[in-house]
Fold each of these.
Amino acid sequence: MNRIDRASRTISAAPAAIYDALLNREALEAWLPPDGMRGRIEQWDPRPGGGFRMVLTYLDPSDSPGKTSDATDVVDVGFADLVRPARVVQTAVFRADDPAYAGTMTMTWHLAAAGDGTEVTVTATGVPPGIDQAVHEEGIASSLANLASYVEPGD
């Protein structure tokens, strides 16, 4: 089966502003971790062929044990393709001993102008089988909501 996890959201910001938030270290630390997690970037190289390592820490690990340790997920993310301001393609590899989380997942962020905002669609392919699809899609949607809060102008 060719599994594709997907989530999308219209965000009231220009594609360039969203693209910039996808390639800014401080921005990613602020909005990328889904609800229930916080993130820290340890390595940073924002160019095609570069990437970053993010340590995601569960605020309540009893609810969702980590893939790398009891309370963390460590993921090495590569920038496979950067097309300003339309697309960011990332490869993600979890650091985990459990083979159910092995493999390289590809996350593609499509940014399309939509009226005064941007339709952001995230598709994930090659998702390790240990990652529940519904939970993953909920996490992507949570990150998109955080992204919207981060880039949308305040009242």
Amino acid sequence: MLRTATHSGPVVTVTFDDGATTRFHAIWLRDNALDPETRAPGNGQRLITIGDIPADTTVGNTRVVGGDLEVTFQPEGKTVIFPAGWLADHAYDRDRPKDAGRTAPGLTTWDSALAPPGADWNAVHADPRAKRGWLAAVAEFGFARLTGGPVEPEALLRVADLFGYVRETNYGRYFEVRTEVNPTNLAYTGLGLQAHTDNPYRDPVPGLQILYCLENSAEGGDSIVVDGFRAAQRLRAENPEGFALLAGHPARFEYSGSDGVCLRSRRPMIELAPDGELVAVRFNNRSSAPFVDIPFDRMEAYYQAYRQFAAIIDDPAMGVAFKLEPGESFIVDNTRVLHARTGYSGAGSRWLQGCYADRDGLLSTLAALELAQPEAAE
């Protein structure tokens, strides 16, 4: 609820019941007006362009009505109500963090001490609350397990159906992860794999990866996940200059292991938003192409930082390890969490299927569940 509302030219100042005060510009309020002539009632999409708003927009009058803000804009003479809760949620008059390498609100970074978050297959299919909790774990930690699923090929596609759609690639709708005689990718061998993000040679990279276990009687073959954001934060703490080098210069990645396929991208190993927030980590030694975008006098320092980042990622204190049983799966945020596996022997068998999906589908489904179940957050 609002206590007071005043205006001076193009600026509105409001005070909430708790004493907090914040300011809004007239042009911002007019652009974000919630009336049905400005935004479609059904989907909330804006019905006007910025050019439809007078350049000399200012505030003619403000008052508090029922605890909410009423504003009359001039020269249009248009009056709009802004709910107090909406204003609080969208306040921008505040000090902003400036430290490079910080994480977005709601993310929790972790190391080997984390107990792997997870949920039960039947529960997430039957109970929206369980599904919400599972998706929320992926959003917060970047990965989560799913146990108790059917042991049948293509069951992983039903995992993707819980929140979105499979992203098809040159590997198909899904791919097999098991030993092959003439593999086109090292993932199809029994070799151990260093922690990595998948497909850094794509632009954009697949946002999510699902791995689903159908057989796992071989010795070894444990799955390992590493929080790339925690690794980047460690690098920043231990070597700020090295962190700046990996974030400030593009690396290059390439894959051309199949006929008719030559994928290339140019992106930093540690990607930051313009305001310094961590956006993504790309790390895959197998798919790295020659680095040619680092100045000559910084190349040695870049490689030193690259080596240190790799050592942090390989540190056992960073990884969470677990062995998937048939019918179990896990999902990783491929823009953040690296995954690895220990090597496994030829005795027994190990058969996983994998597929990709996009983060926006998961985050959209989660947001819709949160709107439908607001009491679950209390």
Amino acid sequence: MRRKWLWLLKNTLNRVTIRAARSGHGPFSLVRHVGRKSGKTYETPIMVARVPEGFIAELTYGEDVNWYRNIVAAGRCELLVDGQWHQVSAIEPYPSAAGRDAFGYPAKLVLQVLQRHEFRLLRTG
């Protein structure tokens, strides 16, 4: 069931959110990553929050999604935020409370109500 849900997102909603991320408007950013098996370049829309060390991503679907597994394997990726590309040099676990706080209100409240607790720091610079 989960695989079908992810396929549906990839082939419908992701197409719209990729366009939104490219435009630099709205809440979406774009992570560009290289497939760990295929070597092919992919772009996946995600939502991030800016912090001094880089950006915080919430792992809505957990660690078993391809974009996350690909950047962990590569140790890097590129991130398009507000129309500007950033080089991500590392990905690290991030404390749950600090991760929710990084998103500010009302997103912080939504993340708390949904009991989201898997956050990652996408370190830049």
Amino acid sequence: MTTAVPILRISDVEVSLAWWARLGFVEEFRHEFEPGLPLFIGVVRDDCRVYLSQHEGDAHGPSLVYLWVDDVDVVAAELGVQEEDMPWARDCEVTDPDGNRIRVASPPRG
């Protein structure tokens, strides 16, 4: 099995965790080398993982992630955005609190 995990730069852990929770992700782990140092957080939804980092050297961003889900309409409704039908997918785009763009998609209808 091969998998890729995007690392996104964040500033506020709690704000980011609440935002990613709206996409159905939960915190999987939290790492801090020493108290007061930047945090590195893993969030997971099903088998999909995203790493969120406060470290200045990680992911200078903002970045773009393409996220496949079973039903983009549910996610779009939760986030208050409009879906769009493309030849390759039905998708929508949202931006996290740190300017990272997340395109959420499901296979095209029909």
